Amino acid sequence: MTETATARRSRITPEREAELYGAVLDLLREVGYDALTMDAVAARTRSSKATLYRQWGGKAELVVKAIKHDKPGLADEVDTGSLHGDLHALMSREDDCTMERNSALMRGVAMAIHNDGHLREVFRSQLVEPEMAAFRRVLQRAVDRGEIRADCPALEFLIPMMVGAFATRALIDDQPPTRAYLTSYVDAVVLPALGAPIR
Q1: Is 12 helix (H, G, I), strand (E, B) or coil?
Q2: pTM above 0.85, yes or no
Q3: What is the distance between the alpha carbons of residues 163 and 82, in angstroms, rounded to a whole number?
Q4: Contacts of 37 (CB under 8 A, 6+ apart)
Q5: CA 58 to CA 106: how far, in whole Å?
Q6: Which H or E run includes 105?
Q7: Nearby residues of 117 by Cβ (< 8 Å), 6 or more positions away
Q8: How many other β-carbons are positioned within 10 Å of the β-carbon of residue 102?
Q9: What is the pLDDT of residues 13-62, one digit of tens each?
Q10: What is the C-alpha separation between 89 and 92, in angstroms, rounded?
Q11: What is the CB-side half-sphere exposure of residue 188 using CA atoms within 13 A?
Q12: Distance, CA of 115 to CA of 122 (rounded, Å)
C-alpha cells in the first residue's frame, strides 16, 4: 500500500470503519450482493460514493472487507494445547444467533461468488486463503504435538469437512448451524477422520 493510500485510509476512524462495515452487511442481508450498490452504501452511511471508491476500490473489496471485519479472527489465534480443545474453542467463538445470521449472509453471497469472477478472486485472496493457512497451522501444531500423523490422508480435507457441515445443515436440514451441532460434528466426524484424540 502506498503512503498516499495509507494516509487516505487513516482519515477513517476505527469506529467509523466498523459503522460502514455494519451498514454494508445489513444491506447485503436485505438485498443480496447483486442488488447492493455503492450508491446505497453511500446513502446508508452518509458517505460520498467517491470516498467509498477511494478507500476500498470497489464493491467486491468493500463487501469482503466488511465480512472479514465481522469475523472473530484467524483459527490459529486459538491455542488450547490440543486439537480437540482448539476446534471446540473455534466453534464457540460465535453464539448461535451470530452463526445463523452469518450462515444466511454467506448463502446470499455464495451465488454471487460463483457468478462474479472478481468477487471470487477477492474473496479467495482476502478470506479463504488466509483462513486455510491458519487452519493448516492449527493442524501442524497438532502434528508437532503427536496428536495426528503427518501422513494422515484426512489432513487436506479439514476445510471441506467443516464447510460441508455448515452447508448440509443449512441446505439439506434447513436449520442454522449451532455450537452444539458443530462441536458434535467435530467429535463424531472431524477428529476421528484425523485420528486425533476426542478428549
Answers
A1: coil
A2: no
A3: 21
A4: 59
A5: 19
A6: helix 96-115
A7: none
A8: 19
A9: 899 999 999 999 999 988 989 999 999 999 999 999 999 999 999 999 99
A10: 5
A11: 7
A12: 13
Alpha carbons 184 and 198: distance in angstroms, whole number: 11
> How far, in Å, CA of 73 to CA of 129, rounded?
13
Secondary structure of 47-77 as H, E, C letters: CCHHHHHHHHCCHHHHHHHHHHHHCCCCHHH
User: C-alpha cell of 192?
Assistant: 476421528
- Separation of alpha carbons 143 and 137, rounded Å: 10
Quote the CA–CA distance of 179 and 108 in Å, as a whole number.
21
Grid cell for residue 64? 469482503
Q: Decide if 115 contacts 55 (C-beta within 8 A).
A: no
Q: Are 119 and 113 in contact (CB under 8 A)?
A: yes
- Closest C-alpha to 71, from 90, 45, 44, 52: 90
Alpha-carbon distance of 194 to 176, in angstroms, equals: 25
Distance CA 33, CA 28 (A): 6
pLDDT value at residue 96: 87
Query: Three-state secondary structure along 106-159?
Result: HHHHHHHHHHCHHHHHHHHHHHHHHHHHHHHHHHHHHHHHCCCCCCCCCHHHHH
